[in-house]
Specification:
about 475 residues, alpha/beta, Pectate Lyase C-like, 14-stranded parallel beta sheet, 6 helices, 39 strands, about 30% strand
Length: about 475
Amino acid sequence: MELTLSQSTASLFCQAALVFSLLLFVSLSSAEGREVVVEDGPGLRAAISSAQPGDRIVLMPGDYSLRKQVISTGGEEGQPITVTAHIPSQTRIRSSVVELFKIRAPYWVFENLTFEGTENAHHAFHIVRDADHLILRGNRFIDFHSAIKGNPEGGRAADYVVIERNIFYNQVMRQTTVPTTPIDVLGGVGWVLRGNFIADFGRVGPDQVSYGAFLKGTSREGVIEGNLVICEWNHSGGRRIGLSFGGGGSPERLRSENNSEHEEGIIRNNIVINCPNAPGIYLNRAYNVKIYNNTIYNAYGIMARFPNSRAFVRNNIVSGAVTERSGAQVEQDSNLTTGWGIGTYITGAAERLIRRVSDYDSKFPNWISPETVAWMQNKFRQLEAWLGRSFMGRGISDFEDWFVAPAVGDFDLLDGDEILGQGQRMTEVKSDFCGRERPSRTVDLGAIEYRQGRCDLQTWLADLFRPFDAP
């Protein structure tokens, strides 16, 4: 009897242990998710379509050609669904469609991937509805009109999206009449654009205005920080604006209740260079926004426009000036500027003169020779270039006195008397472009805290590109 009881007890114990082990395995699998390895486009589509919270989808080396993919099933808090490359330098996702991934579900992470478009590719990601807490991190985006597009769908926009340490550029000017803005966001709360490299986003067309990144249309509490924007990097042309709250504007029905495009956001610690025909930072109906500790070189400064714009602008080093237009309100302090506000009109005035000469030639072809028309247009462009570089415009000669080679991103100091310790300590700016802590009292002007040591942009950029360099 005792033996029988002992055998029965052992049997029950073994069964209980087996059940416990199975439950533990299921629990761990659920918490950690699965690793799904894919090797081609169909495999990637299948893995994304069947993904579960916590899954990690790993792309093996190769080229992945995809059609549009709508993502409607998401991860969970603490268990996002991650899509990544095993070897980033050997993995590309190619697209020629209008939009590649349309995401309407929360908690996805895309990282260490190259997305390569064509002359007709609009978006690598279209972010809508419930795509909250999406993270796009450490990716490279080449040749898209607007690689990242966010907007409402069904009356709701995604919130708390993070776009950090990505690379955006186009190899040639975009031949299109649609917007060309690498990060183009309408709506949403708490978006963060951090530590990205954004360059060469110009377009050819009747309206040649383009932006590096903007948040607009009922968006609020956005953070744009620590980005390096080179409007003209490997090619030039058009009017390229660096960063913006409000962008080119939205229909009134898509703005906030007080008719603003963005509210309560901050643009801090960014470096914006070589935007010679436009502002480095543009505020369009941006309400209660803060523009702190940015460095803007070879651009027409910071411009706020329309009565709904109310901005606090402090501690910036600004090529050009801080200007208010069309009823905007700007409270500014401790900014180092190099130009006049009137300079923002130089490019537009030159364009109008050039067009008028062309119009005159077409209406009265026998009154003026084509050679004279070309000569006059060339002189207007030369005058525009001279005025733009001068103290009336961008005032870039001052930068060449302060920094080693700002045109190529070398902001090592030659003369720091007007920069070192000349700024106010702002609670919203605890660190600098390179992530070093700001002092507790006075701070340096601009994006770099020089008293913390060297902040080398070439090294920063090399670190960003390194995962994509050929092994």
